[in-house]
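DM between two lab members

TW: hey, do you still have the Fe-S metabolism associated domain-containing protein entry open?
JB: yeah, one sec
JB: this one, 122 aa:
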Amino acid sequence: MSVYGKLNETDLSEQAQLIGGRKQSMRYLVQLSRSTPAFNDSERSPENERFGCEARVWMTANYGSDDRLTLRVDSEARVVKALLLIIASALDGATRAQVAAYDLDAHLQRVGLDAFLTASRR
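TW: and the structure you got?
JB:
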C-alpha cells in the first residue's frame, strides 16, 4: 500500500519536477491555485469551512458508491489552496485503505515541499 494515497512514484516524480526549487515552487503554487476554479458561494458555506489555518479553507469530502473519496478544496489564500490541491491530488479518488495509509509528511518530503512548511502549518 502506498503512503502517498493513490499516487505512484511516477506521479510523485512529475509533481516534484513541476514544483522545483523554492523560488520555482512559489511560482508553481500560485499558478496551480489560479488554474483551479474557486468554490461558488453555496460551497463556501459554514458546514464546508475548516478551521485551524490562518487562511479561510473550505473542503468537501464524500465516499461514492464505488467507495472512493471525492475531495474538493478551496482557500482564499493562493499558496494554501495550492498546497491543499497537492494533498487532494493524492486523496481524490482514493480508497479508504489508501486514505488511511496516506502519510502527509512523506508526500510533502517526496515532492520537495517539506522544508516549505513549518510544523505548525502541517
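TW: got it. Helices lie at 9-19, 22-35, 78-91, 96-101, 104-110. The radius of gyration is 14 Å.
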